User: Fold these one by one.
Assistant:
Number 1:
Amino acid sequence: MTIKTFKKVYLGIAIFILASVVIAVLVDNLILALAGLFIGILLVILFSIKVKTTVSDERTEAISGRSAYITFHIITLLLGLLSFFFIINGYIQKDFQSESLGVTLCYITLLSITIYAITYRYFNKIHSNND
């Protein structure tokens, strides 16, 4: 299977998933939506195995890495600002739940930064040893 054929099949699978979710919402059936999503994911996996050429190249990987980097920074910044807002708001209004939510978001932000630092160091070590 060529990449052009794979893109057509992928589009068909996306339309199938969209149709199954829309029908599931209209008839208020969560199982139908999950089944359509599961079948669609299985079809994408099965058809991507049959592609004879590589689906991603260096440019695609560079773009994916850059977009993941920017997304991480935006999400981390938003989580940090939200945690700061909830902590301050909870402290001023004596709202324990709001303050607890802020602290929880703060821990999630710190966990995210820690995971990023660990994975960055790991991949940096791998790529520096191969040179």
Note: The mean pLDDT is 87.
Number 2:
Amino acid sequence: MKLIETPISKNMNLETLYPNISKYAIENEEAIKLYKLYSYDRTNIVYLDRYDKISLLLLNRYRKISHNEVDTIIHRVLKVDRKDVTVDVGYKQHVLEAGIRPKYHYKDIIMVDYQVKA
């Protein structure tokens, strides 16, 4: 499967694309330096480059994201192994417990954090 970077227009921001999830993901976190959008099969990937860490938000509306897909995305986007990152497979449950309802019904939401070494 191909990993495709989605072009971002000038007036597009994360609040417009993922209004409720972005508030939870960005809240109480450091400022975002750069963000990119990727697509891998039917999984949407939001790449958030903060100054001290890089986060990947994996979203799929159709099915659960497999272990192999997470490994492939980490390897292709971050160019590191799974042991170097923190994978939160229960991120969807954290979002729902916080009382946030996503705009769409997602089957799976996973957060991957990679601490950048200075």
Note: The chain is about 25% helix and 35% strand.
Number 3:
Amino acid sequence: MTILVLAPPGDDTARQFCAFVTDRGHRAVMRTRFDEVAVTVTAGRDAACAVDLSVAGERVRAVLHRGLGPPEAADDDMVAGEAAFLQAEAQAVWWSALALWPGPVSNRASPDGFVPYIDPLAAARLPGVTLPPSSIGGLLHTPRPGERRNVHRVRDGMFLGHGSAATSRGEGEILRFTCFDPDRTRHVLLAGDDVFDLSEPTGALAAVHRARLAPMVDRLRSLGATFCLLVIQPEGEGFRLLDVSCHPVHHQFAPLRRQVFGSLLRWLLAGPP
């Protein structure tokens, strides 16, 4: 059986995971093209669908889903827009396949998103979760001593950096400013059934933080998000949710790479084939 890693060609985190899996005697491959992966969807008259995935004739055991990335560069034979069209068609096929396939998928596609979509406003309704002060278009207040501000571009959510330099890079764009205290933030990683506090050398999550995060972790898992990064700031009996991403990258958990990849691999192999 094969573990399929769906990821852009330049995704070093996906490549490192494949190498980790191979070192432990399993087969893991990064594939996205349909001349490399066979996707079979059978639809019945009762609207029930069955999906089968295979690579080089070998059935897929589990999938780590990290997206497709941007369209490949168009070659000389393509008309304008053809590469983007082909990418959109490929995403549509993968979207339905990963949503319907019965095997284990880390970060499963759903009707809400190609990768799990975590709505910040919905998250803020969970017990103990609040959102940080933020504004669009300009700062509502000057950051307090020790406080910093993240700057994101509104149209696509791209992180531009911190402070005035980031604001300059976003000239002509609508920007969102979010204030936070860097000395109080914590990075928490979900990997399979385990939760790691990346702010601690051992990765152990303190009991108090585990209790505070429990509703959020349960919500993420219900959405199929089993490999994602949370950036939080403890606040009173709860925490501020600064960011959540289903695309963790290896440098964020480098000291704990073996433990993180081990947890992810155990989760992928534990599900039904």
Note: The helical segments are 12-23, 82-100, 120-123, 163-169, 207-222, 257-270.
